[in-house]
């Protein structure tokens, strides 16, 4: 998968999860993909102060991204 395809797939994954985040007053932005394996995102809105944002990041965001781009190893939230 090329870097462009990888970026496109990660963005598709974020588009899939975004409606769930927005329904709770949050959002998410892709910051970068490093070495084609490590994704940095920024949780926004209500997600910033949500007590379960790490669970959302791992169980929701990371799982969805890996569905679209299995080679991704980590997904981290950048404040």
Automatic annotation (TrEMBL):
Task: List, alphabetically, the Gene3D superfamilies matched.
Answer: Fe-S cluster assembly (FSCA) (3.30.300.130)
GO MF terms held by the record: iron ion binding; iron-sulfur cluster binding
One GO biological process term: iron-sulfur cluster assembly
Domain NIF system FeS cluster assembly NifU C-terminal positions? 13-76
**Which SUPFAM superfamilies has this protein been placed in?**
Fe-S cluster assembly (FSCA) domain-like
InterPro entries under this entry?
A: FSCA_dom_sf, NIF_FeS_clus_asmbl_NifU_C
**Family the entry assigns:** Belongs to the NifU family.
Q: Which PANTHER family match?
A: IRON-SULFUR CLUSTER SCAFFOLD PROTEIN NFU-RELATED, NIFU-LIKE PROTEIN 3, CHLOROPLASTIC
Protein name (record) = Nitrogen fixation protein NifU
Source species of the chain: Flavobacterium reichenbachii
């Amino acid at each position: 998968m090329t870097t462009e395809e990888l970026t496109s797939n990660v963005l598709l994954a974020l588009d899939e999860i975004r409606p769930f985040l927005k329904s709770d007053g949050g959002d998410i932005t892709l910051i970068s993909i490093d070495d084609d394996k490590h994704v940095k995102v920024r949780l926004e809105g209500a997600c910033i102060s949500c007590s379960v944002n790490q669970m959302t990041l791992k169980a929701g965001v990371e799982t969805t991204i890996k569905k679209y781009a299995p080679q991704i190893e980590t997904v981290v939230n950048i404040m």
